[in-house]
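Section 3.1: Structural characterization of target chains.
Under the original work plan, the team committed to producing a structural model for every single-chain target entering the pipeline before any wet-lab resources were allocated. The record below documents one such target. The sequence was received from the expression subgroup and is listed exactly as submitted; it comprises 245 residues.
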Amino acid sequence: MSKTDVRYAVAALTDCGSTRPSNEDSFGISVEHGIYIVCDGMGGAAAGEVASSLAVGEVLRLLDERDGATPLETAIEEAIHAANEAIYSRAEVDFQLNGMGTTLAGLVTEGQRVLVFNVGDSRCYRLRKRKLEQISQDHSLVEEQVRMGRITHEEALLSPLRNVITRALGTQPSVDPDLFELEAEAGDIFLLCSDGLTGEVPDVQIEALLSAELPLDEICANLVDAANLAGGHDNITCLLVRAEG
C-alpha cells in the first residue's frame, strides 16, 4: 500500500442506550481531511451534550482549517487546547453548565500515517489480522491503578470507581492529551468509541464483531446492539475507519 495513496472507508452510529433519556455523546467526521472524533459528554441537564458538541465542532473546525506548514501533531494539540478553553469558558459564564466536560478520542489520517489522540476514557482500538489492540490509554482512576500494578484488570472491571476519570476536556483551564503515531496497513480497522460500548462489551467480543466480513455500517449496528443487549446503561457511540488497499 502506497504511503501517500491510501483510501479510508468510514461508518458511525450513536445510540441513547436502554436507560438514558438523552444522548450526550457526539461524533464528527471530515472525510476530506481524514479527521474522525468521538466525544462523551458529562454534566447536569444538557451540559454533557453541550460539552461534547463543542469539542467535536472546535477540533473539526481547527483541523479542517490548519495551515499545511503546521506539523500535524502541533495542530492536533492546539485544536484540543482550543476546545478545552471553549468548554471551560462557556461553563464559567453559564452557571447551568458549570462543571461540564467531555472525553475525546480521535484520529487523523495523513496517507498511511495515522495519529491517534485521546483525553479521558473514550477509546481507540485497531483490529489488524483479526487481532484487537487498544491504542489509547484510559485516563481513569482504575486504569491508572492497573498500570501501576496496584490492582488487576479483572479487579478494575468490578471496581465501584471504574467510571471515575482523571482527565477531561473543559473541567480545568488546561488539559494534556495523549498522542500516538501509527502506520496503517490495508485491512486495518480503527474503532473510536465511548465507554457505553466498552463498559458493556468485553474486548474479546468486540474483536469478534469487528472481524466479521460485513459492511462497516452493519458492524457498527452489531456493536451497538451488543451493548444494548448487555444492559445499555450508557450512551453508545461507535465510529469505524478502515484502511483500504
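The mean pLDDT is 92.
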